[in-house]
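Illustration 12: SMP-LTD domain-containing protein.
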Amino acid sequence: MATLGFFDADSLRLRCRIAPSAYFSPAALSGKQFVYLVVVAAHPVEPYQFANVRSKHRSDLAKTIAEFARMTVEDSRKLLPSKFYPSWVVFTKRQKLNWLNTQLRRIWPHVDEAASELIRTIVEPILEQYRLIILSSLTFSKLTLGTVAPQFTGVTIVEEHSGPDGVTMDLEIQWDGNSNIVLDIKTRVGVGLPVRVKDIGFTWGF
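Figure caption equivalent — predicted structure in token form:
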């Protein structure tokens, strides 16, 4: 590992040195990690040229993305005739939401944990408030929404209710879960009556 030296561009006078320990990890210094060096030389008159180029590139990219975001289906059809569409491009009124379902599956374990605790916190005091005198307690011994996340089955743009001020959408969600909820009902005579609810399923549109 060599020490880096920085020289003056006009006189080649040494300005400073940087030891390898300042820019290499201990693993690289000990030879346990491969290191690939890239040398970048700045323009002597325009030292900020790299920053300026990157800034302009980001600005141009943002403008292009904004233009695409404003495109409608009709704009896409005008820009590219149907005979040139790839096989995976289909314009339908009902669109799938695979990307949203993928993200929902990833976060579902955390949603299940938070929702189960919220349900327990809200419902158990209500059950206790309206508990019959012959019962000693009403508590959840098990409460989980399961490992199967709900699925968004599709979204439809309602064109007749959409306009320049907004877009109206019909969203449909379906859940065929493997939830497991057990409510323990204990009587004052010592008899326990567990009530179990499992495999909840529903379809909801809004």
